[in-house]
Automatic annotation (TrEMBL):
Keywords: Cytoplasm, Developmental protein, Differentiation, Growth factor, Neurogenesis, Signal
Keyword field contains Ubl conjugation: no
Main function: CNTF is a survival factor for various neuronal cell types. Seems to prevent the degeneration of motor axons after axotomy.
BP terms from Gene Ontology: cell differentiation; nervous system development
UniProt similarity note: Belongs to the CNTF family.
Protein name: Ciliary neurotrophic factor
Cell compartment(s), UniProt: Cytoplasm
Chief location category: cytoplasm
Signal peptide: 1-36
GO MF terms, alphabetically ordered: growth factor activity
Cytoplasm as UniProt keyword: yes
Phylogenetic lineage: Eukaryota, Metazoa, Chordata, Craniata, Vertebrata
Length: 220
């Protein structure tokens, strides 16, 4: 009789232990899914903010180039068509998402010294009240904000991998007035091309990376 009672107690103990283990596994699974969902949402929010700002800057670059040309006097329509050296490449490189995002970030960083140099040149060429100067400053600030968002997007995907820093940017040698006007126009035009490429890559990354992570998490 005692053996039978012990057997029943042991059986109940095992059933209780199995139930608790199952409950713990379910809680752990739900917790992992919650964390994964949070990361996926962060991924989507980061890329959406970056995409929204890149599109806005792309539209603003069109108006900025028009304002720039209108401020340069005669032959301004030809300035953006003259070839110029030492202007960064607007094309995004890389095969993997991490490489593409890093390329976007480094390209944005490469343009910032050029924006500063164009602004300083135009400060000498324009009146202090010229709307071009305020437009250049505001556009440069928006571009820096885009770089911050790209950095956040990268960190949401690769939190333990530092974002590579770009190399030094080569600025042009001393220029005459005509060369300065051409240089500024080409910098803005090339950056407009970069923004177009950035928007295209971000759209691709949004569907490629964030959705792939959601699908992977759903499998597990």
């Amino acid at each position: 009789m005692n053996g039978h009672v012990k057997s029943m107690h042991f059986q109940r103990f095992m059933e209780t232990a199995t139930t608790l283990l199952s409950l713990l596994l379910v809680m752990a699974f739900d917790s992992s899914r919650t964390v994964a969902a949070s990361r996926n949402q962060q991924c989507g929010n980061s890329v959406q903010q970056s995409l929204k700002l890149s599109r806005l800057l792309q539209k603003e670059s069109v108006d900025l180039i028009k304002t720039y040309k209108a401020s340069q006097g005669e032959m301004s329509e030809l300035f953006c068509k003259v070839p110029v050296n030492n202007v960064p490449d607007p094309n995004i490189s890389g095969l993997e998402p991490s490489e593409k995002i890093a390329s976007i970030y480094s390209h944005l960083q490469e343009f910032f010294p050029h924006f500063k140099w164009v602004y300083e040149q135009q400060t000498d060429l324009q009146l202090p009240t010229s709307p071009l100067l305020s437009d250049l400053k505001r556009f440069s600030a928006g571009s820096r904000n885009l770089a911050v968002l790209i950095n956040n997007f990268y960190q949401s995907l690769f939190p333990n991998v530092p974002l590579p820093e770009g190399g030094p940017t080569t600025l042009p040698p001393p220029q005459n007035v005509f060369q300065q006007k051409v240089y500024g126009c080409v910098v803005l035009k090339t950056f407009k091309e970069l923004l177009s490429n950035v928007s295209r890559e971000l759209r691709s990354l949004k569907s490629q990376v964030c959705r792939r992570r959601t699908h992977t998490n759903a499998l597990f």
